[in-house]
Amino acid sequence: MPFSSKSSKSSKSSKSSRSSSLSSNASHGSEKTHTLSVNIYGRGDPAMNDPPAHWGAMIHKTGEQSGDLYHVRKNKDFYYHPQQRPVESTTTYGRSDITRLSNSGRMRAAQVLDSYGNNNSNLPRGNQNCQDWTVGALGSLERQNLAPKGTEGYWKGNIGKASEDIGAQLTKDGMSWVPKSNVQPPRQAPADATFGQSQQVRPVGRLNLDKFANLSGGAKKRT
């Protein structure tokens, strides 16, 4: 028995409704709700004998005050240490927003960064540090079309530079630079070793800076 006209219309209406719903969901899924940025901590000025500034890649929901920071730290050796951090903290110098991501893009980017970070062959070696690792992580995102073309090369050229100079160059190039309003004094210990740790009160005269000499890995100054 053939379908009645009423049944056919009902079927078409149902299909149209499902199609509209899928279209709406797809549109919602492609909405750019998150921001990928390079976050910089510390002054990192070689001319002032500062330790290298600490870099990391952050993904946060646009407008929110915290996000997921993907970076490496160093104890004796470097290790991958993703963690939730404020977008701007007491140690922040500034950040550069690289691109906007949809929620699905955010999840893909997180997977790419975790895959890169959990591969020990990508950890800094020799005189490399967190800056080299962050550049490599950006490259992994770029190859998956989750960061603009040229991102890895641009940031590779900033390795070893003072944070102030990086911010000035980004501004000159018409790229994003969001400085912190109140920049804290430079940290005495290398940021890779002390990042995210609360400061401990030490007796005056007992701080031996020599023991920190081997922790940063020493960023290379690029020209």
Automatic annotation (TrEMBL):
InterPro entries per UniProt: DUF6540 (IPR046670)
Disordered as annotated region, ranges: 1-47, 176-223
One Pfam family per UniProt: DUF6540
Biased composition (Low complexity): 1-24
Name of the molecule in the record: Uncharacterized protein
